[in-house]
Design goal:
With 125 residues, this protein is mostly helical. It has one domain. Helix content is 57%, strand content 0%. The protein has 4 helices and no strands. The longest helix is centred in the middle third of the chain and has 39 residues. It starts with 17 loop residues before the first helix and ends in a 6-residue tail after the last helix.
């Protein structure tokens, strides 16, 4: 199943808002946490969850790139530097903080010191 293919009767993942996709993923996780999983739906839901995770990861990476490009411009416009990226302002840290907040993460969620969205190490279960 591709990231664009809808689940049976569902909306294509690429047409969901970030919030809608996150909520649907939460519902799929709840499905898997049940004591009795409906075997007939297992593969379809796992494929849908994978497509959602891939799409959300793509969006986070795209947004991070945009933030890292725009922050130096904003800083330069505010008179805080020349926009060359050599200032004390850490553009990547700002991007990480913004995206972690959007994803509902905080520093304690990231035990290995790596940003899971950046490395693609999302844990679903």
């Amino acid at each position: 199943m591709s990231a664009e293919a809808p689940a049976a009767g569902g909306v294509p993942v690429t047409e969901l808002s970030y919030t809608e996709a996150s909520r649907e993923l939460d519902g799929i996780v709840e499905f898997f946490e049940r004591q009795e999983v409906d075997v007939d739906q297992l593969v379809a839901r796992l494929e849908r969850a994978t497509a959602i995770v891939d799409e959300l990861d793509r969006r986070i990476r795209q947004t991070r790139a945009q933030v890292e490009e725009l922050v130096p411009k904003l800083e330069a416009a505010a008179g805080g530097g020349d926009g060359d990226g050599d200032d004390d302002f850490d553009d990547e840290a700002v991007a990480d903080d913004v995206l972690d907040e959007e994803a509902g993460l905080d520093d304690e969620d990231d035990e290995d010191g790596e940003d899971d969205a950046r490395t693609g190490d999302q844990a679903m279960f």
